[in-house]
Amino acid sequence: MILFGTIVNGLAIIIGALIGTKLPRLSKGMSETVMKAIALAVLLLGITMAMEGTEFLLVIFSLALGAVLGERMNLEGKLNSFGYWLETKVKKEGEGSVAEGFIAATLLFVVGAMAIIGALDSGFRQDHSVLLTKAVLDGFTSVIFASTLGIGVLFSAIPVMLYQGTIALAAVWIVRFIPEELLDIIISEMTAVGGLMIIGIGLNLLGVPKTRIANLLPAIPLVVLFVLVQTWLF
């Protein structure tokens, strides 16, 4: 089922939010310990994915050039600015904690490499491991958010499912126009690039000096382009 990972992710947010509204605020120490444990699992997932690639030079070039393009476009900065703008609008208009919780949680769950990589993985090869890992992260985070920001966090599941579901379905449509042998190579190298980015997310969660993962997103289309060029030339 193509949308399985997306649906589980949405349900995890809903369940986590419902639990969060019933619980007292979790201690900082408990939250940090659980998040660190999840971060270790994210690292393991990223390493497993990264090992699937065979064209190491293409992966390096894609990440290096993707980082240059992402930094030039300041993708992470733009996403953060958009989030700050939304938060400012909510505060100015005084829409209350429901809107504030909805926007804050939506930005956290939707904006990021893991949502894109996981949805592409679900669409291209029906592998939901990234989105299922993200579901665990989002579910626990929604407990924390809902305990402080209220029931609005629950409604963030809607844009999350729409966003990730659209990407997954688009990936399925693209697959139909690519020969099977070439598709296997593209998926392997995309998985490797995505895996290295997932490792970066895990390191960020562990508190290692922050990597601007969103600025690496151009590496995903670039590795596809490089694979196509290599196939055409050789």
TrEMBL record:
Q: What is this protein called?
A: DUF554 domain-containing protein
Give the transmembrane ranges.
6-21, 33-50, 96-120, 135-155, 185-206, 213-233
- Keywords (A to Z) from UniProt: Membrane, Transmembrane, Transmembrane helix
Alphabetized Pfam families for the sequence? DUF554 (PF04474)
* Superkingdom in the source lineage: Bacteria
Which InterPro entries has this protein been placed in? DUF554
First and last residue of the signal peptide: none
